[in-house]
Every structure is written in C-alpha cells, then in structure tokens.
Amino acid sequence: MIKAAAEEFDRHGYDATSLSRISAVAGLSIGAVTFHFPSKAQLADAVQEEGRSVTLAALSRLTTDATPPLCLVIDLTLELARLMEKEPSVRSAIRLARERPNVEAWSDVWLPTVRGLLDRAYADGQLRTDALPADVTLLVEHLTSGAEAYLRRRMGADPAFESAVAQLKRVWYLALVGVSADETVMPGRPRPRAESGREQPAGFRPDPTIEGEPVG
Fold it and tell me: CA distances (Å), 171 to each of 26, 119, 139, in order?
C-alpha cells in the first residue's frame, strides 16, 4: 500500500492523488486502505517516513566507514542521487515536503550529517581555507536539488538518459578541481578595465562598485 502510494504521490503530487486512486493501483478495496490510513494526509505521512527511513539507513551504512570526511560527503551525495533515481519513496518524500505545509523537508534528514562531516574536513585541512563548511553545505544542497530536477525532467521521457549518479560524479570533479584558469572571474573580485578602443558587448554597463565608476 505504501509502495503504491509513494509511486502515485511521486507521479501526480499530493493534491492530484486520491485514496481511491491509490487503492486501485495497490489492488485493494478503498475500505482496506482507509482501515489502515483513514485520511490521505496520514498515508502521505507514512510515505514520507518510509523515504526518511530509507535515507537514514543509507547514511548509517556510509558513515560507519573509516573514510576521510570530504570523501564521505561525496559518497553520500552520490548515494542520495542513487536513492532519488531508484526509490519512489524518496522521490515522493521530497515532493510531498514541498507540496504539504509544515512537514519536515527531506534534506533535514541528511544535511546535519553533511555539515558535521564538512566541519571535520575543514578542521583536518581537506578544504581550502576559503571553502567554509557552511558554503560547501550549500553547494551540496544545490547539487542534490539539481539531481532531483534532472531526474524529474528526464525519467519516463528517455529510457537511455544518463544516470543522475554518473552526472553528479562529473559535476563533483569540476567542483573539486575548479573550472577557471583566470582568477579575475572569481565572484567579488574586480575585473580589469577594458582596454582603450576595445569594442564592448551591446548593452555593456560598467560595474558601479569598481573604483566608484558611475553607471551610464
């Protein structure tokens, strides 16, 4: 019953899913469903709890390994992507948390673990001094949210789509090695002035924060 409910909530969302629809998918009478879950909200709670339990079990397996903390963070995000791809209860827990008010977000299950690992990684010198744990935690949130958005866009549309895990591995590689060979493009750093006579792009407006240069 919970499996059928997870698949329906994942596909159609909370508002568009009914107990009668879930009972039909599960092959049960509506009476059998309401005997265990008198309301849709209670069944949604059970689905979200299942998604959280699956996630916590994965956390427990990974964090018992004596792996350096930054490596554990990477392994954890890859496992989260795998869960999103393979487990309807996890995808459903994510969607239900967005669509139902006043319920725990799925990320609340694993973010404290990620932050703790990144604090350890920073203390151990695994992170650059300017890569603060709070900022890297935010990066992990964006990466997992991006993986979920990718899956929702591609699942069911193309059976040969690239796995979220493989894609996330490439993105992590870029995050770890960096993408820019030019330090002047770093956010917050002033960019060099255009050379005299060089044509500027259409609509170019100089940054007013650089040396007090006026706009316009």
Answer: 38, 22, 11
Contacts 24+ apart (CB under 8 A), 31-36: 32/1, 33/1, 36/1
85 Cβ contact list (under 8 Å, min separation 6): 151, 155, 163, 164, 165
Structure tokens at 78: 């890859």
Whether the CB-CB separation of 41 and 15 falls below 8 Å is answered with no
The residue among 144, 136, 131 whose CA lies nearest residue 115 is 136
Closest listed residue to residue 77, CA positions, set 169, 161, 178, 188: 169
Establish how many alpha carbons lie within 13 A of residue 193's alpha carbon, considering only the half-sphere containing its beta carbon. Answer: 9
Tens digit of pLDDT for each residue in 102-161?
899 999 999 999 999 999 999 999 999 999 999 999 999 999 999 999 988 887 666 667
